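Hi all, long-time lurker, first post. I run a small reading group and we've been trying to get comfortable going from sequence to structure in the token notation. Rather than ask abstract questions, I figured I'd post a concrete chain and ask someone more experienced to write out its structure so we can walk through it together at our next meeting. Sequence below, copied exactly:
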Amino acid sequence: MTVSAVILKLLIYSFLSYSRKLHTPSNILLLSLAVSDFLMGLLLMPAEILRSMTCWVLGDLMCSVYFFLNVNITCASIGNIVLISVDCYVAICDPLHYPTRMTVAKVKLSVCLCWFYSTFYSSLYTKNVLIEPGGYNSCYGECVFFSSDIAVIVDLVLFFILPVTVIIVLYMRVFVVAVSQARAMRSHVTEVTLQRSLNQTNKSELKAARTLGVLVVVFLACYCPFYCYSLVDENAVNDPAASFVVFIFYFNSCLNPLIYARFYPWFRNAVKLIVTLQIFKHNTCEANIM
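-- Answer (accepted) --
Happy to help. Here is the structure in token form:
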């Protein structure tokens, strides 16, 4: 899981950054999600394996850093999914205003604010272990973290109830609009060529909505078990039995590239360019792989 998440996400990150043809608002959000998934596979997965299955040998400071990065990267990943849902909602439900509301500059600013907010929140949430590394440990080789009941409730609301509610509401609206557009396309299939080209555009938007819908559904399926478990066990982060649901959440970072490969032709073309080393050729960054 760790190796596949790192390699696949590195491919996505490399080509989304390199190819200028892919610098669109939607792909910038996918790039940010790829960064959070890449860091999750590179840093969090190995650390969680070490923490749950063996003795923690990296010291108290690295234990504190692990919990800080865990909260930071997880919050950023959740924020990216919410931003992707908003992008899909505007594209489908208000397409006329999409070019002005979802510009590259605005999306970049939203991504930066998402990461800044995640870093700020994780600093507050893990403040105790950052100030006093190993303060919760009862013996050598232990790496644990405890938070107050208030902090657990705030975290549950901010990063489970609120984002899940926003995502579900937005995609219910997108689904209703997508169904109505599909019916309209079927009822006007014999209209003039101009209308037919418009239908092709709508089909493209509906396909993008379906792809992002699959991305979000898979995310929720991997994301919800941990928080549902935390409702039963408030000390779930330190419970060895909870490692399974933690890795279900991390497993999402492995599934996302498979979703890209299934629904995004540019991802398959990009992987082909990278594997065959054509990416090193001149003007590859201007190549049209859509």
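A couple of things your group might point at:
The chain has one domain: 2-286.
DSSP finds ten helices and no strands in the chain.
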